[in-house]
Specification:
single chain; 162 residues; alpha+beta; two-stranded antiparallel ribbon; two-stranded antiparallel sheet; 6 helices
Length: 162
């Protein structure tokens, strides 16, 4: 038997608060010279919230957080809300240009239910994988022509065994 869980019900609201943030923030810088003052405002991205960071903040591990989602109904519901907030933040941050578009796509495919369908093209020079997203309207009425590629067999079976 392992040691007792350090679960606390207040972690539910702490998790929601941790994931409920804006994609960007304003940072003001004041430059001063002898006879002048200039204020510059920059918009920079906020840190993207992860369950790994949240678990570190409450002095536990991501695996424990996963276990709590099974053991505590209230925590499971808060976890689902936090996942929704994380997904919303990713979408808003990508749209606003706060996050790199390629990294946003990578994150979206790995931490949300968004998936990028892959087109696999096997060509004489090798395999070409293209990630694209199609809607039914975009492919409606299109014909997909799959042609076999003539190549040498990878494994040849001797006549005696056949």
């Amino acid at each position: 038997m392992g040691r007792p869980s350090n679960y606390k019900p207040e972690y539910c609201q702490q998790m929601i608060d941790f994931f409920n943030r804006e994609p960007t923030r304003e940072v003001k810088t004041i430059f001063q010279g002898k006879n002048w003052t200039k204020e510059e405002v920059k918009i920079i991205p906020n840190d993207f919230p992860t369950f790994e960071r949240f678990s570190f903040n409450i002095n536990t591990y991501p695996e424990i957080i996963s276990r709590w989602t099974v053991q505590h109904r209230d925590f499971h519901q808060a976890y689902l809300r936090a996942k929704a907030l994380q997904k919303d933040l990713l979408v808003r941050g990508a749209i606003q240009g706060a996050y790199d578009s390629k990294f946003s796509q990578f994150l979206a495919c790995n931490i949300t239910d968004y998936k990028a369908p892959a087109l696999l093209n096997i060509e004489p020079g090798g395999i070409n994988i293209t990630l694209q997203k199609f809607t039914p309207g975009e492919i409606q009425g299109e014909k997909v022509d799959i042609k076999p590629i003539k190549s040498k067999p990878i494994l040849q079976i001797p006549e005696k065994i056949k």
